[in-house]
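Run Response regulator transcription factor through structure prediction, thanks.
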Amino acid sequence: MRGALAALLTREKDIEVVPAPPEYRHTVSQALSYRPDVVVIDVDGEEDRALGTSLELSARLPECRTLLVVGSATPEYLRRALARRVSGLIGRNSPCDTLPEGVRKVAAGERFIDPGLALLALSSAENPLTDREREVLRLAADGTPTREIADRLSLCVGTVRNHLNAVSRKTGARNRIDAIRIARESGWL
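Sure, done. The structure for Response regulator transcription factor is below.
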């Protein structure tokens, strides 16, 4: 994907592309070496790492801005990225001219958010579940029995049931399976 993004940007006369690092973990050191105006990061299932890299870049190289290219981002991830003030967000399936436009705007000090991603982030409900409720629901979604969930999380079986009931109530679900479906579709799991 990095090669495709680089090839797309190389066609632009006003954008110079520097070599991408051989591995994700070298992004910050390579940016410190080249000192680019914008670093384009392909999230590709590495949501937390991409946000961490973006934050580290802004701390260590404040004049460099980041533009995240996301594939199937959840509304919750998009809201977290926006809250952390990433410079730009673009969907991987956006039209080809969106990436160069985003790079130019971000380089100019503006924030650029792909309209489709902005709509996705704003149109879905915020996650009403606590961290513990998500943890219990995640295990339930994996098919883990209630007793085993209790053992793994050092909880009483009744507490696990209370968490699952709270999840069903908060999501408006009819049962545990419906709660899992709702939470997944909303990007809460």
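The chain has a mean pLDDT of 84.
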